[in-house]
Design a protein that fits this description.
By secondary structure, the protein is of the alpha/beta class. The chain is built from 23 helices and ten strands. A hairpin with a 2-residue loop joins β9 and β10. Bound molecules: adenosine-5'-triphosphate and magnesium ion (MG).
Length: 433
């Protein structure tokens, strides 16, 4: 932290400075402190350091609580070169606000931005005098400066993003940008990628290994057996916030092994975090798709439409997979939910709509049956406690099996085999009755 603290401006200038009439909040241009309990992760800080050495743009993406900000704060704390930090929020979508904070952060990190460069655009604008001036100033720096933009997913105003891209492309080696974002930022990443000018650190990279999780637990005075540690890392999929919340509760728990088995309970800190940060920020129709599909192990666009009865559900899933790393694409049209996220959704479904659980399982059973996944179909019928449905599915399947064996020579066999699955399910094989 020492190098980072040295970059801080003297206290007098750390109070609010006014640009374009908007007060600047110091908290938004200050890198967060790295707490003593934070686990050092050299494999990640090393990649950020490497990225900022060679690439104009380093992008750290992952879901809420993946450890993006912490990773970049740790790198910034150890960084000898100048670092300017801007923590974004939804109000920074006004170009005037965004650029005011960038200028304030640059000044704070030691760049002498002249007063004449305060003509910050108030409206979405193209390349104007302000942007040209700022870019030229950065391009002329002998020592490179790194601008960290924390939570860039909140910046959606096209003019501002265009301006940022312009500055990044033209400031040369004078400027490096590191962004954290819950989804791919709306910058032309493909262009940077293909030019070898982009470093990407994603959710998989940020995931804690079992060894890192063990260090995190140790910081909270807990140790686990190798099996329990493995199970905790697997269930959380190395999700930083999940591990830390578990570590905080684990210390007080008399039976750590049991605690990990039960990790998610109605009132656990983990559930509250996931509900507040991930579920409740979704619009009602997205929330509905998530809750309804949570009973599936793997979710497909078709399945989502089937379970919700909403033709838009497929689009909702595709958009979630782009914007929310708790929903991960598996194959075209297929998705999986992060383990803990899925568990939270199922728990919420049971609590909010207990009467819907069996109905959803029945729908899932019929959908799987129609698509020929008998084992899944029967499993869902059983979960719905709909034994007649489960039994009928098994009997139908046996009948079709028999058809294959006994009826191969029957004149109707070829016709029956060629039937679409839904008809074949509905109609008994003609020579088995
Ligand atoms: N290296 C670490 N050591 C210990 N705990 C960590 C570490 N990294 C992350 N955490 C835990 O995970 C929490 C979330 O981390 P962080 O705030 O960096 O997530 P984020 O990905 O930036 O989330 P958001 O998208 O909400 O901004 C931290 O508050 C901390 O409890
Ligand atoms: Mg963050």
């Amino acid at each position: 932290m020492a190098a980072y603290a040295a970059n801080r401006a003297p206290t007098s200038t750390r109070r609010s400075t006014v640009l374009m009439g908007d007060p600047i909040l110091t908290s938004k241009i200050t890198a967060p402190d790295v707490p003593a309990w934070a686990v050092q992760r050299p494999r990640i800080t090393g990649r950020i350091a490497e990225g900022t050495r060679w690439c104009p743009l380093t992008v750290v993406t992952g879901p809420a609580g993946a450890g993006k900000t912490m990773a970049v704060a740790m790198w910034a704390a150890a960084e000898a070169d100048r670092v300017a930090w801007v923590c974004l929020d939804e109000f920074d979508n006004r170009p005037g606000a965004f650029w005011s904070y960038v200028v304030a952060a640059l000044r704070r990190s030691g760049i002498a931005v002249p007063k004449t460069l305060q003509a910050i655009p108030q409206e979405p604008a193209g390349v104007d005098g302000f942007l040209l001036g700022l870019t030229a100033l950065l391009a002329a720096q002998d020592l490179p400066l790194t601008l960290v933009l924390d939570d860039l997913h909140l910046l959606t105003e096209p003019g501002t993003l265009k301006g940022l891209d312009f500055m990044l492309r033209n400031a040369g080696s004078g400027l490096r940008v590191v962004v954290t974002s819950r989804m791919d930022p709306l910058l032309p990443l493909h262009r940077y990628r293909v030019a070898g000018q982009l470093t990407e650190i994603r959710a998989d990279d940020l995931a804690f290994s079992a060894a890192e999780a063990s260090l995190l637990l140790a910081q909270h005075g807990s140790t686990l057996t190798a099996d329990s540690l493995e199970s905790l890392t697997q269930r959380t999929e190395g999700w930083a916030a999940g591990l830390r919340l578990a570590a905080m509760s684990l210390g007080a728990h008399p039976d750590p092994g049991q605690f990990i088995k039960e990790l998610l309970t109605e009132d656990s800190a983990l559930i509250c975090y996931l509900v507040d940060e991930v579920l409740n920020v979704q619009p009602p129709e997205v929330r509905e798709v998530l809750l309804s599909t949570s009973i599936l192990e793997h979710v497909s666009a078709d399945g989502a439409v089937e379970l919700t009865g909403d033709g838009h559900a497929a689009g909702v899933l595709a958009s979630l997979a782009r914007t929310n790393a708790f929903v991960q694409p598996l194959a075209p049209g297929w998705y999986r939910y992060h383990n803990l996220f899925a568990e939270m959704l199922r728990l919420k479904l049971r609590l909010e709509h207990p009467e819907r659980v069996a109905v959803l399982h029945q729908r899932a059973a019929r959908w799987h049956q129609r698509d020929g996944r008998l084992a899944d179909a029967v499993r869902h019928a059983a979960k719905a406690a709909d034994w007649p449905l489960a039994a009928a599915m098994v009997v139908d399947e046996l009948a079709i099996g028999e058809l294959a064996e006994r009826g191969a020579g029957h004149p109707l066999a070829a016709e029956f085999a060629a039937m679409p699955a839904d008809r074949a399910w509905a109609e008994p094989a003609p020579y088995l009755v």
